[in-house]
Write a structure and sequence with these properties.
Elements: E1 2-6, H1 10-22, E2 26-30, H2 33-42, E3 47-51, H3 59-68, E4 75-79, H4 84-93, E5 97-100, H5 105-119, E6 128-131, E7 134-137, E8 142-145, E9 148-150, H6 154-165, E10 171-172, H7 173-181, H8 189-204, E11 212-215, E12 219-222
Parallel strand pairs: 1-2, 1-3, 3-4, 4-5
Antiparallel strand pairs: 6-7, 7-8, 8-9, 10-12, 11-12
Helix pairs in contact: 2-3, 6-7, 6-8
Length: 226
């Protein structure tokens, strides 16, 4: 699990970092709200732990901005004091949980586990699809390549999901039309070509390894390439 810690209290940050590192979580750190928000918006994280009081931008505003950008990454708000007003404020801003920094480490880890389980759809319903360094979070409708978020329209995401689900197999334009557009009209095949080009620009441009390939005269397939 990849976790972003946005914490300015150095003592608590050190303790939190050691606790999570022992569980072999991948950790990234920001010590002010503005930097933390930027990191959260430009990379994929499974969970964000953000303090209420931060330099440059407080934790409530960090969460509010994330939700305004339709980022549904689970967020746990932390505070050095238990305040019903702050709890309500955090939850209204879009936090998924609220804990005091003095809470027992076992309780904290259990809460982290619960949020992660909820995000991935329970025990047996994975919502993360991946191939090479491309990753799709189906629940969040979010795509990442090399941990960088890719902006996709709803139709582009639907098409990319279909390609990833069939990775390594050639899918015809007719199959794509049927599954993505729920259409079988042959005259619409140009629509598939247009959207494949959109995806190539967003997914493959700037990377040596191309993932979207053309099977001449047949259709397309998604696989690791050179």
């Amino acid at each position: 699990m990849k976790i972003l810690l946005i914490q300015s209290d150095t003592a608590y940050l050190g303790s939190l970092y050691r606790t999570l590192l022992e569980r072999q979580y991948v950790l990234r750190v920001a010590t002010d709200g503005y930097t933390g928000l930027s990191m959260a918006m430009h990379a994929r994280f499974d969970l964000i732990l953000v303090d209420t009081e931060l330099p440059r931008m407080n934790g409530f505003d960090v969460i509010r901005r994330l939700r305004q950008e339709n980022d549904s990454t689970p967020v746990m708000l932390t505070s050095n004091q238990k305040s019903p007003a702050d709890t309500a404020r955090g939850l209204y801003a879009g936090a998924d949980d609220y804990v005091v920094q003095t809470c027992d480490s076992d309780e904290l880890l259990a809460r982290i586990y619960a949020l992660h389980r909820r995000r991935t759809g329970g025990f047996n319903a994975p919502t993360i699809l991946s191939i090479d360094n491309l990753e799709l979070n189906v629940a969040e409708k979010a795509a990442y390549r090399a941990s960088k978020r890719i902006s996709l329209t709803a139709r582009e995401f639907q098409l990319l999901t279909y390609l990833v689900e069939n990775a390594g197999r050639v899918v015809t334009k007719a199959q794509i039309l049927e599954k993505v557009w729920e259409s079988s009209a042959a005259c619409n095949t140009n629509k598939v070509e247009v959207y494949i080009n959109f995806l190539r620009k967003k997914i493959d441009r700037g990377y040596d390894r191309k993932l979207i390939h053309t099977a001449m005269g047949v259709g397309y397939l998604l696989r690791s390439g050179v």
